[in-house]
Design brief:
mainly beta; Immunoglobulin-like; 31 strands; 43% strand
């Protein structure tokens, strides 16, 4: 995250107009239009690391705020009181283009870009002119390595409420589409693969190992051993408590007696389990399916992007914001208090506002989506003076 807010002392920065956003506002009386919102971060011509970027500022109370770039709309911001927030995981998408482009699922992101950011607010349906910041650099010239948010172990001493208070019911996720795919599907699902001679030994699956945990959307390098000259089919079977089972099967690449296949399970709900196995064919002869390997997908806790950990703030209203799964139910846990409180969530951005008293504050966050709740995040600490 950029240090722009800290470096500028919290003073707003409004860039001059950018020709990328030349506007025609002939349909409205100019003196009736609301003023543009203010952009506090990032600053024009600033350099920001690849990964989590916070775009934030102030606006009129009750406004709807939209964030754009010269390459298109980024999304709708979260507006709480007279502040707006939009958090973005910048870089390559976890999925191929067109597949759940709003998904986060714990990805940090990678890549580099230089963009102009523009923000507009709507009040009673009337659009303001654009506030803009130019030449915002994200990432370096070379792609930065992808990384993941570590999953914390739950600390029962942190919660002063009941031990089962962290478990919630369905979050009411607005995105219910399920997408499952493995490239170059060979013959459809495994139940449709039929032959007359079952005489070959089963291949082996050497990776992944039983019980390995992955991020949802993360590519899985499936590999093993087989007979020389065999055709190997790799299969993924998945099960959802609410939707039942499904499966996808694809041909693997074979090199001598070793085979491998990259598997991507595109879905926006966490499966109860996924089973991976393989079958080999030579001519019309085929083997039984290998012993299935069971893997799982961990739900990563939400990320706190703003303010900076270890920062100091005056007593009064403080905003916390970060990234979560798409329209997840985000809960804020404050040490020493029994009950969590809900954040406001729009897309992948969550915002929590509270009047804090003086002292050292210790916060953790969880998210719930599709009936599943993440473990708490690492403890986030800041001080109120």
């Amino acid at each position: 995250m950029s240090n722009d807010l800290e470096e500028s002392g919290g003073k707003p920065f409004i860039a001059s107009a950018d020709e990328s956003f030349t506007e025609q506002q002939t349909n409205y009386e100019i003196d009736r239009l609301p003023p543009p919102p203010v952009i506090l971060a990032p600053r024009a011509y600033s350099s920001n690391p690849a990964g989590h970027l916070i775009i934030t500022g102030t606006c009129e109370r009750g406004a709807a705020v939209v964030v754009l770039t010269s390459k298109g709309k980024l999304g709708d911001a979260v507006v709480v009181n007279d502040h707006w927030f939009y958090c973005r995981v910048w870089g390559e998408e976890a999925y191929p283009p067109g597949m759940l482009v709003n998904a986060w699922y714990g990805w940090i992101g990678r890549g580099a870009d230089i963009i102009t950011i523009a923000v507009r607010q709507y009040i009673d349906g009337l659009p303001s002119s654009l506030a803009q910041v130019k030449a915002v650099k994200i990432g370096g010239v070379e792609a930065s390595p992808a990384s993941t948010t570590p999953i914390s172990s739950e600390n029962s001493e942190f919660f002063s409420g009941a031990s089962d208070a962290v478990h919630y019911s369905d979050s009411g996720c607005s995105n219910t589409q399920e997408n499952f795919f493995i490239d170059e599907v060979f013959g459809g699902t495994r139940d449709n693969l039929i032959s007359t001679v079952q005489s070959l030994p089963e291949p082996t699956v050497t990776w992944p190992k039983e019980g390995t945990s992955f991020l949802l959307g993360q590519a899985i390098e499936l590999s093993g051993t087989c007979l020389e000259g065999a055709t190997v089919l790799a299969s993924a079977q998945y099960y959802f408590e609410s939707y039942g089972p499904g499966s996808s099967t694809a041909s693997a690449e074979v090199d001598g007696t070793e085979w491998n296949r990259q598997v991507i399970l595109g879905m926006n709900r966490y499966p109860e389990f996924v089973l991976l196995d393989a079958q080999q064919w030579i001519g019309n002869s085929f083997s039984p399916w290998s012993r299935p390997v069971r893997i799982s997908f961990e739900m990563v806790p939400p990320k706190i992007v703003f303010p900076l950990a270890g920062s100091t703030h005056p007593a009064g209203g403080i905003y916390l914001s970060g990234v979560c799964d798409y329209y997840a139910l985000v809960k804020i846990w404050i040490m020493g208090e029994a009950d969590p409180e809900s954040a406001v969530v729009v897309g992948n951005t969550w915002v929590y506002y509270r009047e804090f008293t003086k002292g050292s504050k210790h916060v953790r966050v969880t998210q719930t989506i599709g009936g599943k709740t993440s473990k708490p995040s690492d403890v986030f600490e800041f001080t109120v003076e």
